[in-house]
Amino acid sequence: MTQTAVIGIAIMLTLIFLGMNIGLSMALVGFVGYWYVINFRAALGVLQTAPATQAGAYALTVIPLFIMMGNFAFASGMSKGLYSTANKWLNRLPGGLACATMVACAGFGAICGSTAATTATMGTVAIPEMRKYGYNDALSTGAVSIGGSLGIIIPPSAPMIVYGIMAEQSIGRLFAAGIVPGILLTVLLCTTVVIQVKLKPSLAPAGERFTWRERFVVLKDLFWMFVLFAGVFYSMFSGIFTINEAAAGGAFLAMIITFLTGNLNFKTFMAVMKDTVKTSAMTYLLLIGAVIFGNFLAITRLPMTMANTVATMQVSRYLIFACIVLIYAILGCLMDALPMIMLTVPIFLPVVLELGFNPIWFGVMLIFVMQLGLITPPVGLNCYVISGIAKDVPLQTIFRGSAPFIVPVLLAIAICTAFPTLTTWLPTIFYG
Fold first, then answer.
1. Which residues contact 55 (CB under 8 A, 6 or more apart)?
2. Which of 73, 134, 344, 416 is the most exposed place for a label (fewest CB within 10 A)?
3. Does residue 164 contact residue 60 with C-beta atoms inside 8 Å?
4. Residues 95-143 pLDDT 10s
């Protein structure tokens, strides 16, 4: 039956590359495979129960709520104040505007959770500003591309939510686990910019000077972002609210902030609702397809066979983990983060658990590797988003500008592998 699972995976990947919707291709192959291995009635039973089970799952309500919160945060205009503040505080660094862009991306990712939204928002604000000061196009577009990917490591993060559901892990623990690695990666990315500009000063001219008074005055622009961030995360990690209740409160609070900043009208409200429904529907379709396909894999026992095979291998578990990272890095060049989680977690999680790794730690490592897929061809979603903003910059220039940032991502993976407590420390403090 393992051979049947391999054939099914090959057929599904073929359908995806031919242009079929990923969720539908997973559901189709899962249904037909279940039919082939068991019988038609059993396959029909899975097809009947999976959509209702997923659509009606209380845990999944957190997805549209956090998406709505991010959309309202975007509409409120918080990103401009965040970028302005980061710029004034980091402008003395070599490549200070690029560093400010990535710090601003990290901050906006903490209230948005969408890589595409973070990249588009900060790209619209930061790229014209960096061009005005004579920044190299490759550096400026590359900085925004990798900066936008911080939205999936710093909570709230849609891929983290999906991983938590697929791996049956606490979403709150995953959110807490992503904070320190996210800060670490942000520092490594800024360091990479500084090194690049030190080695080649023509990439970025010296920035504008600001007084300490100007730096402290601009902090007021972070007020609403701080209110939203503190409200959601304090209520979530203190135990006052559950994850779902914190997401609902965050969405409502973001709407109120949008109103108080004068950016809420009927057109904006409808645009936020439309985008929330569209993104949520896409995510739910992927989840439903992944569940049907996961049931097919389970009856073929492919995940268990792989786990047992790995357990008997006489090699270091870190070597096996490195192979898994390489597989994810290759897959990340070919598909987006959410479908990759749904396709691979049922296969690789049993292997990771058999090796004795912490599933929360593995979830963070998985998100790290997915960041590489957002800036590497041929998919490189963030690079395509930037290409749509900076239309006169060739796509190959954007990919070339993103390439140096692969190194700090790999370094972050290595550091968190060598010191796993960086990911498990906060979850232990918050949840015991």
1. 284, 288
2. 134
3. no
4. 888 888 898 888 887 777 667 777 877 888 788 888 888 889 999 999 9
